[in-house]
Specification:
- The structure is a single chain.
- The protein has 218 residues and is α/β, with parallel strands linked by helices.
- It has one domain: 3-Layer(aba) Sandwich (Rossmann fold).
- The protein has nine helices and seven strands; from the N terminus they run αααβαβαβαβαβααββ.
- α7 runs parallel beside α9.
- The termini are far apart.
- GO terms for molecular function: methyltransferase activity.
- InterPro entries: Methyltransf_25, SAM-dependent_MTases_sf.
- Keywords: Methyltransferase, Transferase.
């Protein structure tokens, strides 16, 4: 519980001011988010949960792409949730979208949203900021419906980028408490074996971004 509170406070400190210009700046380097959303393909009247919903930017796009779905989002930053509520209301999605403050590694969707399972769950550039990110992915898989899928997009291993660029990027990310998870795809494969699910992987932009999908059998 203490670690949860401290991480939430850290995220509030990081984003207290950044949330006002977050989306305007992140579009230049949080690559792969839109291809990930385009690949969700939920059932027509399905449910979509975003873990670490931030400003609500991705939920708005998902809501527009899949107009008959129900939308849900959790975040550990009160500051980001405040912005997400505003953005979702401005997009006219208030009747379809439900947001809650929660720790991604240990949350109860029944208490939060009145439902236990989701057709699609996605995590966009958040595993690189969550200390217990492997536990978060396992928790997410446990909340998938049969045929449901977890989609994760985040920084890749950057191995095809020039060494100087890679080193500079790692140092810059460190300032913002971001740690690329070079073992993301291996962890996804391990979780798939444990849960009898299937994995897919996309490597984008010379390894700058990865998309990992863990899919339950129907």
């Amino acid at each position: 519980m203490f670690a949860k509170i401290e991480h939430g406070r850290l995220m509030d400190r990081v984003y207290r001011h950044q949330r006002h210009f977050y989306d305007a700046t992140r579009k230049y380097y949080l690559l792969g988010r839109d291809p990930m959303i385009a690949g969700l393909n939920p059932p027509e009247r399905g449910s979509i949960l975003e873990i670490g919903c931030g400003t609500g930017r991705n939920l708005v796009l998902a809501g527009e792409a899949y107009p008959k779905t129900s939308l849900y989002g959790i975040d550990i930053s009160h500051e980001m949730l405040a912005t997400a509520h505003k953005n979702i209301a401005a997009a006219g999605l208030g009747g379809r979208a439900h947001l809650a403050y929660a720790d991604a590694a240990d949350f109860n969707p029944v208490e939060l949203f009145g439902r236990r399972k989701f057709d699609r769950i996605f995590i966009s550039y958040a595993v690189s900021m969550i200390p217990q990110w492997e536990a978060v992915m396992r928790e997410a898989v446990s909340h998938l419906t049969p045929g449901g899928a977890l989609h994760v997009v985040d920084f890749g291993d950057l191995k095809d980028l020039p060494r100087f660029t890679r080193t500079a990027l790692y140092k810059w990310l460190e300032w913002y408490h971001v740690t690329p998870r070079n073992e993301l795809l291996d962890v996804a494969d391990k979780i798939a074996v444990e849960t009898e699910t299937e994995t897919e992987a996309q490597r984008l932009y010379g390894g700058f971004a990865w998309i990992s999908v863990i899919r339950r059998k129907a």
